[in-house]
């Protein structure tokens, strides 16, 4: 299993409280197949709705709110660690939960999606997201109201609509458990830019404002730091999209996502569309100030590829990274891995 390189507090699900009936320690799971069998997604036709709610007490907005009250007919969990999350999901699955409410940010969603396939082995729950985090990129893509409440999400599970999104999966060779699932992957300068975003959070900048300030800071570091600064030199990566030749060279940035709409409506991958999309920028990026408007607006300009800015659609990519990578805001160690589009999931919308 991929381990985080950050302190425990940085994880999406590390909270101050844990309020649910404890169960026995999660059992050891046999090594999973590299690509698990597709699961059916629960729908209203599957019978009575049974709802499980995961609260992240350390999510940005939840820190400012009173502890959530229980909702009749729903099971609640407030895990304070990955082990507690595993036990909560195991209990939900045993009790027949077929819809999940995730009250937290993108990191919380990543943690729940990554752990859930260890427990929901037949019918996978549909998911409602409460955007309580710092950037809430998935909520932006789904068009969710940023002030959506748990009670409104529970009502929408019974009466609302559905949008499908396929997560991005990260697998290591020889993984003995399920891989990571998220929606925004980045390496190279993206790791450094995420560090800048954490700084903007400390000064009260969140959501689109944090994204904008991080882009501005990354460009400034690249343009004004000189040709030999560490931003421009990039990091060694081996990138091998399925069915294409491998690239083994220093890269300034590698960005990947399965979202159809990014925060601030930026379009680094070009026109809005589903599927796994990549942006790769060669080390020592050229004419970055001239390229930036086309990169952010999604315009397909010939000079982009000519100057080392490459957009690509791929179902699967084999990667070897010398440095770390980011998945939905958290840092993980690099190495050899497979990046691919996962099984589509159903997300509840108003």
CATH architecture title of the largest domain: 3-Layer(aba) Sandwich
Amount of helix: 25-40%
Q: What is the overall number of helices?
A: 10
Biggest sheet, in brief? 11 strands, antiparallel
Overall SS class: alpha+beta
Radius of gyration: 20 Å
What's the CATH H-level superfamily name of the largest domain? Probable inorganic polyphosphate/atp-NAD kinase, domain 1
**N/C terminus separation:** 35 Å
Per DSSP E runs of 2 or more residues, the count of β-strands stands at 19
Using the alpha-carbon principal axes, give the shape. globular
Strand percentage, roughly? 25-35%
The unreliable regions are 1-11, 14-40, 200-209
Work out the count of structural domains.
2
CATH class term of the largest domain = Alpha Beta
Oligomer: single chain
Order of helices and strands: EEHEHEHEEHHEEEEHHHEEEHHEEEEEE
Domain DAGKc: 87-177
EC number: 2.7.1.-
Protein name: Diacylglycerol/lipid kinase family protein
Enzyme class: transferase
């Amino acid at each position: 299993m991929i381990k985080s390189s950050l302190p425990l507090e940085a994880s999406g699900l590390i909270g101050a409280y844990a309020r649910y009936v404890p169960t026995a320690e999660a059992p050891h799971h046999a090594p999973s197949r590299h690509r698990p069998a597709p699961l059916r997604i629960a729908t209203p036709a599957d019978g009575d709705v049974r709802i499980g709610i995961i609260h992240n007490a350390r999510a940005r907005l939840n820190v400012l709110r009173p502890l959530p009250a229980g909702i009749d007919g729903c099971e609640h969990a407030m895990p304070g660690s990955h082990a507690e999350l595993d036990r909560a999901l195991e209990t939900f699955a045993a009790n027949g939960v077929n819809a999940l409410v995730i009250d937290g940010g993108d990191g919380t969603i990543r943690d729940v999606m990554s752990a859930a396939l260890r427990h929901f082995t037949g019918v996978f729950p549909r998911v409602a997201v409460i955007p309580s985090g710092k950037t809430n990129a998935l909520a932006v893509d789904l068009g969710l109201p940023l002030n959506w409440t748990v009670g409104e999400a529970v009502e929408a599970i019974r009466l609302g609509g559905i949008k499908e999104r396929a997560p991005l999966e990260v697998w290591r060779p020889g993984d003995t458990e399920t891989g990571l699932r998220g929606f925004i992957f980045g390496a190279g300068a993206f790791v450094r830019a995420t560090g800048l975003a954490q700084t903007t959070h400390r000064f009260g900048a969140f959501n689109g404002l944090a994204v904008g300030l991080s882009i501005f800071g990354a460009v400034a570091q690249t343009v004004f730091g000189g040709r030999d600064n560490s931003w421009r030199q990039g990091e060694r990566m081996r990138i091998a999209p399925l069915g294409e030749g491998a690239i083994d060279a220093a890269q300034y940035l590698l960005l990947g996502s399965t979202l159809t709409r990014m925060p601030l409506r930026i379009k680094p991958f070009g026109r809005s569309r589903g599927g796994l999309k990549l942006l790769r920028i060669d080390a020592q990026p050229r004419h970055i100030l001239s390229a930036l408007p086309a990169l952010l607006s999604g315009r397909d300009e010939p000079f982009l590829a000519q100057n080392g800015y490459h957009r690509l659609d791929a179902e699967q990519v084999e990667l070897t990274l010398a440095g770390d990578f980011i998945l939905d805001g958290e840092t993980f160690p690099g190495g050899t891995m497979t990046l691919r589009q996962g099984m589509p999931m159903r997300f509840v919308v108003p």
